[in-house]
Amino acid sequence: MSSIWSAIDIAGTGVNVDQTWIDTIGGNIANMNDAVTPGQPVYQAQYVSAGQLVAPSGVLGQSVDAGVQVNAVVLGSATGQMQYDPTNPLANKKGEVEYPVVDLGSEMTNLVQAQSSYQANAKVMSTAKSAYEAILNIKA
Amino acid sequence: MMIPAIPPISSAVSAGAVPGTTQGASAGAASGSFQNLLGQAIDSLNGVTNNATNISLQAAAGTATVADATVASTVASLDTQLASALVSRAVASFSTIMNMQV
After folding, report:
1. What is the pTM of this model?
2. Burial A54-92 (b: 16+ CB within 10 A, else e)
3. Helix count (H) and strand count (E) of chain B?
């Protein structure tokens, strides 16, 4: 997507990446209590790996940043943490239940960070729109 | 909503040529004329606006993100304002010439 309103497009890519980030955090928090019997596949936390998106050539013919993109969604530990809970119907013979490795504290921190980043990108979009409108509204 | 592009006025595009005699040969020279530029701009603007409509529908259906719809509608709005500004400037310059005292 290349248009002359590149600042808005760039901010849009940022908002989309932040949206993915918030989605993964939501998935992690929603699944943090998914207990399984040890040996069964346990929920793996999702982490977004983002990187810059380079456009082949910008308006001025130079290679400029076209924004940010999600390079990959990296999965966390495949082996969960054991908890001793013999009354749980999912417990094995040793009375252990396996829970996913999701740190609620760091997830909440990431959520605050993702929200701020989302708002920052939205602010860039709104400011760029105001700037573009300012140049369009100049009366001859 | 599809707005067809305004076709160029073929009798007026050949600047300096005698009307009615060289209309076929003036097609290449007319590619930069104001009519053609305006037609292309309206075509492009139409495409941008349709794109914004489609992405808004996709966002409502859940297949596109709200950010995509916001970006598309903002770009469509800015493109419309740009086209409107360009037409206003062109008409103003035309009026300036036409109001010249002779």
Report:
1. 0.74
2. ebeeeeeeeeeebbbebeeeeeeeeebeeeeeeeeeebe
3. 2, 0
**Mutation site, A2, A8, A121, interface B, largest B CB count within 10 A:** A8
Contact with chain B for residue A12, Cβ under 8 A:
yes
Tokens of B40: 């292309």
Neighbours of A118 (CB within 10 A): 19
The answer to whether the complex's ipTM is over 0.85 is no
Rg of chain A over Cα atoms, rounded to whole angstroms, equals: 22
CA distance A24 to B44: 37
B74 to A8: CB separation less than 8 angstroms, yes or no: yes
Q: Which residues of A touch B82 (CB under 8 A)?
A: 136
**Chain A CB within 8 Å of residue B71 CB:** yes
Do residue A125 and residue B70 have CB atoms under 8 angstroms apart? yes
Query: Is the Cβ–Cβ distance between A80 and A99 less than 8 Å?
Result: yes
Are B73 and B56 within 8 A, CB to CB?
yes
Q: What is the pLDDT of residues B17-41, one digit of tens each?
A: 444 444 444 444 456 787 888 888 8
The residue with tokens 């966002």 is: B59
